[in-house]
């Protein structure tokens, strides 16, 4: 048998199993629906009724959580994979007049669409490819961080959280599940104050990071048996606090782990309605599962 040489380490996932949601506060649910549902083509969760003060938006296997209040802006870029940039561009053009007077803006490149949301959040959307782990979903959250901080950030995620890390050219990339990363890119520009947004991650080894964080008084919330929160990334060598962003950390026993999410076909409308085409079909293979499997 001919021996095949593979880079087996490229398939290592590490301790973070999934980057599950991004939570940002929005001041107006109707405007948020126009942007996240009608413009971007995502789906308001039809099952979990959270009342008028919190909306969940499904994006493949991931979500946006949108409480109401003073708007929060992620200090960086949220990266998303979508099945079709052409239909995305058409939707963005359609809703432009409804989002007039907000921060909404669209910049189209050959293979990427950069969108600024109504309250200033930046989104980078690209079309899925056959090598992606998803046809629709949250692929990355990239943060602007102070110069010189990426190596220490990398040590934190590698040594404390247990995630695979690479640091190159002023950027720390952290594996956050198949096809997903957290990215920390240094900038010489001003970094805005932290406004309280958070990201949610599922981890396999739930207790070891918790023990380290407790010993250094970094836990900000002991939610329940299967969830806790911290908000400082700390260099484990020097103890220096490098970057503030809240992490909602969940165990694999969390009641919402792998909860099936309903995703719609955003191209279905009254003018072109096709019976049976209401659900989202990844890669057109005739399944309603939003996981991107072919």
Describe this structure in words.
The protein is α+β, with helices and mostly antiparallel strands and 294 residues long. The protein has a single domain, classed as 2,3-Dihydroxybiphenyl 1,2-Dioxygenase, domain 1 (Roll). Helices cover 15% and strands 34% of the residues. It has four helices and 16 strands. The strands form two sheets. The protein has an eight-stranded mixed β-sheet with strand order 2-3-4-1-13-16-15-14, with helices on one face. The radius of gyration is 19 Å and the shape is globular.
Any key phrases for this structure?
294 residues, alpha+beta, 2,3-Dihydroxybiphenyl 1,2-Dioxygenase, domain 1, 8-stranded mixed β-sheet, 15% helix, globular, disordered C terminus
Q: What's a concise summary of this model?
A:
The protein is α+β, with helices and mostly antiparallel strands. It is 15% helix and 34% strand.
């Amino acid at each position: 048998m001919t021996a095949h040489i593979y880079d087996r380490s490229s398939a290592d996932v590490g301790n973070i199993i999934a980057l599950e949601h991004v939570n940002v506060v929005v001041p107006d649910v109707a405007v948020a629906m126009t942007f996240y549902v009608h413009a971007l083509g995502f789906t308001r969760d039809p099952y979990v009724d959270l009342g008028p003060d919190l909306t969940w938006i499904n994006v493949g296997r991931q979500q946006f959580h949108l409480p109401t209040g003073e708007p929060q802006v992620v200090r960086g870029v949220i990266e998303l994979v979508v099945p079709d940039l052409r239909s995305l561009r058409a939707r963005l053009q359609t809703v432009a007049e409804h989002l007039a007077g907000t921060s909404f803006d669209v910049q189209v490149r050959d293979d990427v669409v950069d969108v600024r949301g109504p309250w200033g959040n930046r989104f980078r959307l690209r079309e899925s490819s056959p090598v992606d782990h998803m046809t629709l979903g949250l692929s990355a959250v990239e943060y602007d961080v102070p110069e010189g901080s990426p190596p220490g950030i990398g040590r934190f995620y590698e040594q404390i959280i247990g995630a695979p890390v690479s640091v190159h050219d002023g950027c720390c990339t952290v594996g956050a599940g198949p096809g997903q990363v957290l990215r920390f890119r240094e900038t010489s520009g001003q970094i805005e104050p932290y406004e309280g947004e958070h990201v949610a991650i599922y981890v396999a080894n739930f207790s070891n990071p918790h023990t380290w964080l407790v010993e250094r008084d970094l836990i900000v919330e002991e939610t329940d048996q299967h969830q806790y929160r911290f908000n400082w990334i700390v260099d484990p060598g020097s103890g220096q606090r490098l970057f503030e962003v809240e992490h909602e950390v969940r165990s694999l026993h969390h009641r919402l782990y792998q909860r099936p999410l309903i995703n719609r076909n955003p191209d279905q409308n009254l003018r072109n309605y096709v019976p049976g085409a209401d659900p989202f079909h990844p890669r057109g293979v005739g399944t309603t599962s939003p996981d991107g499997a072919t």
